[in-house]
Write a structure and sequence with these properties.
Blueprint lengths: L2 E3 L6 E5 L7 E4 L3 H10 L5 H4 L21 E6 L14 H13 L7 E6 L8 E4 L3 E3 L7 H10 L9 E3 L3 E6 L6 H20 L6 E6 L11 E6 L5 E6 L7 H11 L7 E4 L56 H40 L1
Parallel strand pairs: 4-5, 9-10
Antiparallel strand pairs: 1-2, 2-3, 4-6, 6-7, 7-8, 9-11, 11-12, 12-13
Helix pairs in contact: 3-4
């Protein structure tokens, strides 16, 4: 056995061996040289670890990574730089998350809740695809707001409903939740603002940071709400978006309503009535990257942000499987087993009688 002794003050590593091994001393010229070599090693940048040059870029399957849902609610709250990893566990987001959990079963359509950058607009609520806004909702207002607007589909009697115009881009920049979003998100927002300004589109296209929407590995992640050629608004999700893709987002998707297929994750939408929800277990399907997605079994939505049952990437507990068919199957199996035993017994009895009769005749 070789025993190694090492102390920080020694400039050599000494190995004391058994009689089978010779004594050996390895010396470093100096600790300063070792430190110099470490310093000279090429540093790995945040972009290579967490940004657009990371190894996992473009390795995942984007299509089908968004679950079906029919409405998206964005709550404006503080700066994205101050959000907790689970932003829905504090203040106004926490109150909304609890109300969503309590009334989720009463919503007419599956609804996602996501936090977006606030500041002066703290408490504002943006609702898509309706393209409406309610301003400055307080914690004491949340339950009544959810009841009136999201459950009953009415205007909120305690606030003024405003119509939104233009296009909205929500970029996941939730750095405290995942550093990939923290590196990619702000870079994308900066590029959007530059391109929007150079095109003279300020006031027509609005870019806001948002909390985690699911799929850390797909960063940069963003959702675009923009009218199509028919004037219909639908949230379209994109992943692996880089600053180089921003001009196409503006010129192709927002200006022309054309989907950028290679970056498409799917869009907000519900399964049409009469369509088989699941053709195979856990199947996802988006025809040509544009169609309505087939729902994944047990999946509860598209965004992903945390606690209190609001997370749309949190899977619900599957309903108990009905046991009627299993019971019948076991019953038939039991009958088959009994019939087999009876048949074997009958054959055995006949054989016994035949042997006995043969012996009787020989003895006679």
């Amino acid at each position: 056995m070789i025993t190694k002794f090492l102390t920080p003050s020694f400039r050599s590593l000494r190995f004391f061996s058994s009689p089978l091994c010779s004594f050996e001393t390895l010396k470093y010229s100096s600790m300063a040289e070792v430190e110099k070599n470490n310093v000279n090693a090429a540093p790995v940048s945040d972009d290579e670890l967490y940004g657009f040059k990371r190894q996992e870029m473009y390795t995942g399957t984007l299509a089908g990574s968004v679950g079906p849902y029919g409405r998206h609610v964005f709550l404006c709250y503080k700066s994205h730089e101050t959000w907790l990893p689970r932003v829905e566990t504090e203040g106004l987001p926490q109150r909304f998350a609890k109300s969503f959990k309590d009334r989720r079963a009463d919503f007419a359509v599956k609804t996602n809740l996501t936090v977006c950058g606030g500041g002066e607009s703290d408490g504002d609520v943006l609702i898509f695809p309706e393209m409406i806004r309610y301003k400055a909702i307080k914690e004491t207002d949340v339950d009544a707001f959810v009841e009136d607007v999201l459950v009953n589909g009415k205007q909120w009697t305690s606030g003024v409903q405003e119509e939104l115009s233009g296009s909205f881009v929500f970029v996941c920049a939730h750095g405290s939740r995942d550093k990939r979003c923290g590196v990619c998100g702000p870079a994308l927002m900066e590029k959007f603002e530059q391109e929007i300004g150079s095109r003279g589109l300020s006031g027509k296209i609005f870019v806001k940071p948002c909390s985690h929407i699911g799929g850390h590995k797909y960063a940069g992640n963003l959702i675009v709400f923009s009218p199509d050629s028919a004037g219909n608004v639908s949230g379209h999700w994109y992943g692996y978006v880089t600053p180089d893709d921003v001009p196409a987002m503006l010129d192709q998707h927002i200006a022309k309503g054309e989907i950028i297929q290679n970056l498409s994750r799917g869009k907000m939408g519900l399964i049409p009535e009469g369509e088989e929800a699941v053709k195979e277990e856990n199947e996802h399907k988006i025809p040509n990257g544009k169609g309505v997605q087939v729902e994944k079994k047990g999946f509860t939505g598209g965004c992903c942000q945390g606690a209190n049952g609001v997370s749309c990437c949190q899977e619900q507990t599957p309903e108990p499987v009905k046991k009627e068919a299993t019971i019948k199957q076991n019953w038939f199996r039991s009958i088959e087993k009994e019939e087999l035993l009876l048949g074997a017994a009958a054959v055995g009895a006949v054989a016994t009688i035949a042997v006995a009769y043969s012996i009787y005749r020989k003895s006679g």
